[in-house]
Write a structure and sequence with these properties.
It catalyses: ATP + H2O = ADP + phosphate + H(+); Couples ATP hydrolysis with the unwinding of duplex DNA by translocating in the 3'-5' direction. This is ATP-dependent DNA helicase RecG. This protein is α/β, with parallel strands linked by helices. It is 40% helix and 18% strand. Among the domains are: 75 residues, DNA polymerase, domain 1 (Orthogonal Bundle), CATH 1.10.150; 100 residues, Nucleic acid-binding proteins (OB fold (Dihydrolipoamide Acetyltransferase, E2P)); 153 residues, P-loop containing nucleotide triphosphate hydrolases (Rossmann fold); 159 residues, 3-Layer(aba) Sandwich (Rossmann fold). The protein is built from 24 helices and 22 strands. The strands form four sheets. It has a seven-stranded mixed beta sheet. It has a seven-stranded parallel beta sheet with strand order 12-13-11-14-15-10-16, with helices on both faces. The chain has a six-stranded parallel beta sheet with strand order 17-22-21-18-20-19, with helices on both faces. Bound molecules: adenosine-5'-diphosphate and magnesium ion.
Length: 701
């Protein structure tokens, strides 16, 4: 092999060979030399920063200490077996503790020698210790010469270590790889972008990420590589968006007509919020460009998305089209149907409901009316996308709670007209802006960030199990005032049996505390037949029962304005966005509403942060931001199917500023050179012409 480059299979790299190549492929999915170079350290040990033992405390994330290993001793038996080292410097001493690889450690550690120890300090009874610290023999000479002050740490696996590919081994490979291909490395970013954003050149960045000279050098490398990663994601997303607008002609809604105006002037029971007005205007402008609209509307529960959807549909109807609205569950579809019907009143246009339980006879009528154009608005569930459902001329589609629908389902709606209808996707799960820009980078995003005036903020409190009697007393008071109460239990697949038992025990307890005939309790959970569920739900909606005991089936969309108390049991087990959704079930009427978070006395740090966040704020976007910081982008609801979030170095939670910079940079490039035909943009055009591995980009949106 004369010319090795980043695309050369990894087995041709000196020091690798077929066997190592095999584990590298299997364990780390590294196939080429380029893949290896993009396998970045996950942290660095700052070899310039040393602490004295006296300075150590348990709040430190990690610390490096030079000292002498005085002794090593094995203590305990069986599962309690561990190795304890006494370690000392000129300020004090600490214990080093190991639970694993004891025999190997006993052989390799030499008491009496000086070591550099790196680990997380913990503290017990004033005694400092480190568990499983990294140990390196201290060589005073080396430290002085020491050219690598920031020492990279690569994650490795047991298998890799068997092939000498621990962090040091991987580092050696990186060195060989860099030496081998350094001169053939080409920068994927054009020069003028590097200059404009003050970015390191690519070869330099790669060198510095693996072998940083110092902290500044490392930070510059990290910034450059993060920028590049985010830049190319945005380049692709924004190019897709551009292509969509060019490719898909859209129905042109060029007038605001009678139906819209009649509704607005005569039927609308409240003034629209500024946010609602703004979003309706965005939709109006968007549907009058001749291109197909693909817009995501994010708005917290209760922000009034339904009326925005309705007015958009009226706009379509005024321009001679039909509209439909799809919801993920039958209950929700029903609620949209009654909500929309009530808002519209008689005489403006025709609305019907189509779900799985629509009787055949009515179904036939609906099909007929859709085809002859006498039906203006169809509201329903998945039933809408069946092939039998044909429209005379559908122009506008609203999808509620978007992440519950798959891509194919949405694509089917596109095909219900020769020119695809405009798509309005509504979600009540606010997603942090930066995340939305990446997940839905090729959609336009509207935000309803304002609640209708006059809403009383929901009071949220956190109670521990031993305060339960107070909570019952409070529930009684509220019920005496004529209000209704939700009590929600977690029901999680992995622990379903236990959860159902808790639910039953909780229910029995409630039945004792709130006995018939004074109190009536509804119960709804996912294991019940749909018929029973609906029946119980209806009893609560009609006010026949005062308490609704439920699992999270009520999470989405249910609207009972008289229900003013939400009690969430085992609240620490719910995710933040789920808690927020649940809380959104109350606070829908004129009364002061309450959300009571019940938890056990023992809380994890994260659990505590979640509950504290809920108590502190009711702003869905703020909550989503905390959720993003806590869990990282991959776990935010709705993101799981999206491959864009698997990044090599950038992190959407912490790199928002770089993301904005990269995105704005791409926007500017497309503005100036939409077809990327300028000489200076050749690299970018070339990048877009390659097939991107792994991610199916048409799946996003
Ligand atoms: P969501 O965004 O959660 O779907 P809805 O559309 O169901 O919210 O609206 C919640 C409630 O607020 C409904 O009862 C609706 O009629 C009412 N509403 C919507 N917009 C306004 C407004 N501008 N002023 C007062 N009430 C409003
Ligand atoms: Mg809604």
């Amino acid at each position: 092999m004369a010319d090795l480059s980043i695309v050369t299979p990894i087995e041709y790299l000196k020091g690798v060979g077929p066997q190592k190549a095999d584990v590298l492929k299997k364990e780390l999915q590294l196939f080429t030399i380029g893949d290896l170079l993009q396998y970045y350290p996950f942290r660095y040990i700052d070899r310039t920063a040393f602490h004295k033992i006296r300075e150590l405390h348990a709040q430190m994330v990690g610390a490096q200490v030079v000292g002498r290993l005085i002794s090593v001793q094995e203590v305990g038996e069986k599962r309690g077996r561990r190795l304890i080292g006494q370690f000392r410097d000129d300020t004090g001493s600490m214990e080093l503790v190991w639970f694993q690889s004891l025999s190997w450690l006993k052989k390799s550690l030499t008491p009496g020698s000086a070591y550099i120890v790196y680990g997380k300090p913990s503290e017990f009874n004033g005694q400092i210790s480190m568990t499983h610290p990294e140990m390196e023999l201290f060589n005073a000479q080396e430290k002085k010469v020491g050219n690598l002050t920031m020492q990279p740490v690569y994650s490795s696996t047991e298998k890799l270590k068997k092939f000498n590919l621990d962090t040091k081994g991987i580092q050696r490979l990186q060195q060989t790889a860099l030496e081998t291909v350094y001169r053939s490395l080409r920068d994927p970013l054009p020069d003028y972008i590097l200059q404009k954003h003050h970015l390191l050149a690519y070869p330099q960045a790669l060198l510095s990420i693996h072998f940083p000279q110092n902290v500044d050098d490392l930070n510059r490398a990290i910034r450059r590589l993060k920028f590049e990663e985010l830049f190319f994601i945005q380049l692709r997303l924004l190019r897709n968006k551009q292509l969509n607008t060019q490719k898909y002609r859209g129905h042109r809604f060029d007038k605001v007509g009678n139906k819209f105006n009649t509704f607005f002037n005569e039927r609308l029971p409240f003034p629209l919020t500024q946010a609602q007005k703004r979003v309706i205007k965005e939709i109006r402008l968007d549907t009058n460009t001749g291109a197909q609209m693909n817009r995501l509307v994010q708005g917290d529960v209760g922000s009034g998305k339904t009326v925005v959807a309705l007015m958009s549909m009226l706009l379509a109807i005024d321009n001679g089209y039909q509209a439909c609205m799809m919801a993920p569950t039958e209950i929700l579809a029903q609620q949209h149907f009654s909500g929309v019907s009530a808002l519209l009143g008689e005489g403006i246009c025709t609305v019907r409901l189509l779900t799985g339980s629509t009787p055949a006879k009515e179904r036939r009528i609906i099909h007929q009316q859709l085809e002859d154009g006498t039906l203006d608005i169809l509201i329903g569930t998945h039933a809408l996308i069946e092939d039998k459902v044909k429209f005379k001329n559908i122009g506008f589609v609203v999808i509620d709670e978007q992440h519950r629908f798959g891509v194919e389902q949405r694509a089917k709606l596109w095909r219900k007209n020769v020119i695809p209808p405009h798509m309005l996707v509504m979600t009540a799960t606010p997603i942090p802006r930066t995340l939305a820009m990446t997940m839905y980078g090729d959609l336009d995003i509207s935000v309803i960030d304002e609640l209708p005036a006059g809403r009383k903020p929901i009071k949220t409190v956190h109670f521990f199990e031993n305060q339960r009697l107070r909570v019952f007393g409070f529930m009684r008071d509220e019920i005496a005032k004529g209000r209704q109460v939700y009590v929600v239990y977690p029901l999680i697949k992995e622990s379903e049996k236990m959860d159902l038992l808790y639910l039953e025990a909780g229910l029995e307890n409630l039945q004792r505390e709130f006995p018939l005939p004074t109190y009536k309790i509804s119960i709804v959970h996912g294991k019940m037949p749909v018929k029973d569920k609906d029946f119980e739900m209806q009893r609560f909606v009609k006010g026949e029962t005062q308490i609704m005991v439920a699992t999270t089936v009520i999470e989405v969309g249910v609207n009972v304005p008289n229900a003013s108390v939400m009690v969430i049991e085992n609240a620490e087990r719910f995710g933040l966005s789920q808690l927020h959704q649940l809380r959104g079930r109350v606070g829908r009427g004129a009364e002061q509403s309450f959300c009571i978070l019940m938890s056990g006395n023992k809380l994890s740090k994260e659990g505590r942060t979640r509950l504290e966040t809920m108590v502190r704020t009711s702003d869905g976007f703020e909550i989503a931001e905390v959720d993003l910081q806590l869990r990282g982008p991959g776990d935010i609801s709705g993101t799981q199917q999206s491959g864009v979030l698997e990044m090599k170095i950038a992190n959407l939670a912490s790199d928002q500023a770089i993301l904005m910079e990269a995105r704005n940079s791409v926007i500017e490039i497309f503005k100036e050179d939409p077809s990327l035909s300028a000489e200076k943009n050749i690299l970018l055009a070339h990048y877009l012409n390659q097939r991107s591995p792994g991610i199916s980009w048409d799946k996003i949106s």
